[in-house]
Amino acid sequence: MKNMLRKCGAIVTLLCAVGYAPLSTAAMKVTLLGTGTPILNIDRFGISVLVEAGSQKLLFDAGRGVAMRLHQQQVPLRDISAVFISLLNSDHITGLPDLYATAPLPTDDGRLKTPMRLYGPDGIENVAQGIELMFKDQNRMRMLEGEVVEPATHITTKRVEPGTVYEKDGVKVTAFLIEHGHVKPDFGYRIEYDGHAVVITDDTTYSENLVAHSKQADLMVQSVAIGSRALERAAPDYVNHFYGYLASPENAGRILAETQPKLAVFAHISLYSQPGIARATVDELRERVQAAYRGNFVIGEDLMSFSIDERGVTQLPYSAEVRHKESGSRNLP
Ligand SMILES: [Zn+2]
């Protein structure tokens, strides 16, 4: 038990002590499908967060491996109601072509028969047109074989501007500008349902606008970047360049201290290194955030899930082994 508490971090002792009671009547469920960056990492796939609220299954960013992670989570691809992109960097969209091409195929889970609904910043139309062109000939051939229906070969796009971008069956998504240096626009999203709120802020450093739109959240999914103390001493210009547009542990702590979510989880975790200087450890990341923020937070891993209801936010049972496991499907390996 002592070891478990240490792993969870002293400030989340309460969360761990309460345990991982499954919540069958959760208002919202949030799953970290991918927590990584453009850097190849078998344990951290590309950034993507699944938010399930009422009848809606909303995907926020679609990085590398998103279709595989949904499969592991036993969420049929056809069930994704809409996809929201924060910014157009590759690590947020490289999973889209796979999602687009695979969801309409006939499987045990059924298939998508309607256009993918894609929301994102200025330029999202180019992404959609590019994917449709990429698969133009395969779609023609699969339609001839009866494997794909024509409506599913289209992507419906909506360019995101600050404000409410999506409302359906009681689920509301609001976009707001966050700060990522020269990459503009870059959006954070606030998802509200049944009196609860989830905030997702990828790829950003501290900004007053971020804080203003992120208060009173049940769960906040926040990015963070860290070079070890040793790297910061050896190559300050290198590390400070990234800290200019990604939240350092100290800035991440400042964001959380000012927004005060019931629980925060770090995803899109950038770990910098150079030859001879290792990446920062999880313990260093935790300690540096704790120095700026005394509230509850979790350092996220792929396929971690959180349930939100009137009792608060609960981390669902998790084992790192799930990242490498086939889902419970009937398919042969
Ligand atoms: Zn990114």
TrEMBL record:
Superkingdom as given in the UniProt entry: Bacteria
The name under which this protein is listed is Ribonuclease Z
Q: Which UniProt keywords apply?
A: Hydrolase, Signal
Q: Which residues cross the membrane?
A: none
Q: Does the keyword Hydrolase apply?
A: yes
Q: Which GO terms describe its molecular function?
A: 3'-tRNA processing endoribonuclease activity
Q: Give the signal peptide, or none.
A: 1-26
Question: Does the record's keyword annotation contain Hydrolase?
Answer: yes
Listed EC numbers: 3.1.26.11
Which Pfam families does the entry mention? Anti-Pycsar_Apyc1 (PF23023)
Q: Which gene encodes it?
A: rnz
At the highest ranks, the source species' classification is: Bacteria, Pseudomonadati, Pseudomonadota, Betaproteobacteria, Burkholderiales
